[in-house]
Amino acid sequence: MKKEKTIKEKIQEKISNKKSEWLDEAKYAEENEAWLEKSAQIALKILRHLRENKISQVELSRRLGVSAQYVSKIVKGRENLSLETICKIEAALEIVLIEVVVYGSTINVSSMYSKNKRGIPRQDARSVYNGKMVYTSFGKYSDKGKKERIA
Amino acid sequence: MEIVRIYEDEDCLLAAFYEGEEDDEFSRLFEEWTDIEKLEKFFSENEEDLQRHHWGNITIEEAIFAVRKEAITLRKRFREISEEPSKERVESFIKLFKPLDLRLRNNDSFERKKVYGTIRRSFLRMYALRIGTEMYLITGGAIKLTDTMQERKHTRKELDKLERCKQYFKDLGIIDEDGVIDLLEI
Q1: Which of A42, A100, B103, B162 is 20 to 30 A from A70 in CA distance terms?
Q2: CB within 8 Å of A20: residues ≥ 6 apart
Q3: Is residue A94 less than 8 Å (CB to CB) from chain B?
């Protein structure tokens, strides 16, 4: 017993005053778990697209008009991305990163803002709701393409 | 090399802080195991190992999220242990830290230990030296894809780190060249 105490004391003398950040980081990660999960999924989708298409992070930063350091932060999967940033990345890489469920259907967020000259959302903004094609705006199309207005 | 406490005022869980590193080993592991860019690079470089029968038909994407999920669960477990009373904490660590090599299992101080991740076929390993019965020094960790640590450079490096930490205690005179605690200390 006494032997162990001596060893312990010797080691205690050698413990640095430097504070490990681990516990604070662990608490932060737990409190922000939900959006960090989504950020990680987005990061992976971006990284796999970059690798498959041989696009460098520097090239992506150029397309986005941001610094390479910012892109580096995004692909770590710890950045709380705004919808604006997500839409810019989707446009820069021509991929879909997130979709939103609206009235039981799934839509691509960036295409919510993509409309043709008549103000109708483009093809990729359409989705299926109750077996029918619908648009993300409040105009609705049947599966035969006949427009009906939602009351 | 320096030694830092993980649980603020408690000495039960320590970590090596190697020269030239930005973080202590314990923090570094959780940082790396949840960094999507690092994980994507690691699995892309080690894709062949991932195709071993042991891992099933797992894709790189699935492996990345499996590691991340394991790391999050392990981090929660260590955080929960930080809130346990001292006696319970010792028991929790005994359950968590397994001998590194079952064939060389012994009760010596400075025994090499490992912590597995949280799933049956776990990717994660955390390596440590047990000091006495109540202290653990985290020396490093790795994503282990092969049967033995000797098979890959990144896991061989972890064996070196275990030895480096043991040497640190030898240099301090806490253990002798054979790894035996000096009986004159009694």
Answers
A1: A100
A2: B4, B5, B6, B15, B24, B26, B27
A3: no
